[in-house]
């Protein structure tokens, strides 16, 4: 994903009424690469309920390997507009294997506050982290988890204990 400009033709094709045109546009983005398309693809995922198109978008997002896209994914997770596709964004995060360790509190917050399925996806991102964040982020995370352990469900309690075991 190196180009830094959106192709207006491809962008228009993404929102075509013709499913084959949309899938072709997604495949062009996948082949050419451009991180600026991620928000556009998320908007498409939000608005389009065709399973094949959804599958193509999720596959593309799960194959992103450019580290500069990490803040884009994090911003999407924190944006209210994308709440209905949060699980898909989280799945893309653990599938693409990018380094999200500096954003550990974002994922822990999701584990604590979101429904169990979404929490599981966030936990999977944390569980697959190869690197730990700095001490300040670890301390912030511990402070988030401690009070949550007193009020959370058994399933989420397991996640939180596993996260603590990973970061200490």
Tell me about this structure.
The chain has 168 residues and is mostly helical. The protein folds into 2 domains: 1-98, no CATH class; 100-168. It is built from 10 helices and no strands. α3 packs antiparallel against α4 (51-62). The longest helix has 15 residues, at 135-149.
Describe the structure concisely:
The chain is mainly α and 168 residues long.
Throw out a few tags for this protein.
168 residues, mainly alpha
Strand content: under 5%
Give the mean pLDDT.
95
Q: Over the alpha carbons, how many angstroms does the gyration radius reach?
A: 17 Å
Assign an overall shape. Answer: elongated
Q: What is the number of independent domains?
A: 2
Number of helices: 10
Low-pLDDT segments? none
Structural class: mainly alpha
Oligomer state of the chains in this structure: single chain
E-strand count: 0
Largest sheet: none
SSE arrangement, N to C = HHHHHHHHHH
Span of the ends, CA to CA = 35 Å
Could you estimate the helical fraction of the residues in percent? 55-70%
């Amino acid at each position: 994903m190196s180009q830094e400009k959106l192709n207006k033709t491809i962008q228009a094709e993404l929102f075509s009424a013709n499913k084959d045109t949309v899938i072709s546009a997604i495949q062009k983005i996948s082949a050419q690469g451009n991180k600026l398309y991620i928000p556009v693809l998320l908007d498409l995922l939000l608005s389009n309920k065709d399973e094949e198109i959804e599958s193509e978008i999720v596959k593309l997002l799960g194959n992103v390997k450019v580290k500069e896209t990490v803040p884009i994914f994090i911003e999407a997770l924190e944006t209210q507009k994308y709440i209905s596709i949060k699980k898909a964004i989280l799945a893309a995060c653990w599938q693409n294997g990018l380094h999200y360790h500096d954003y550990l509190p974002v994922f822990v917050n999701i584990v604590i506050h979101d429904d169990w399925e979404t929490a599981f996806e966030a936990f999977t991102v944390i569980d697959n982290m190869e690197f730990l964040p700095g001490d300040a982020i670890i301390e912030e995370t511990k402070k988030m988890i401690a009070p949550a352990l007193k009020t959370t469900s058994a399933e989420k309690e397991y996640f939180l204990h596993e996260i603590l075991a990973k970061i200490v």
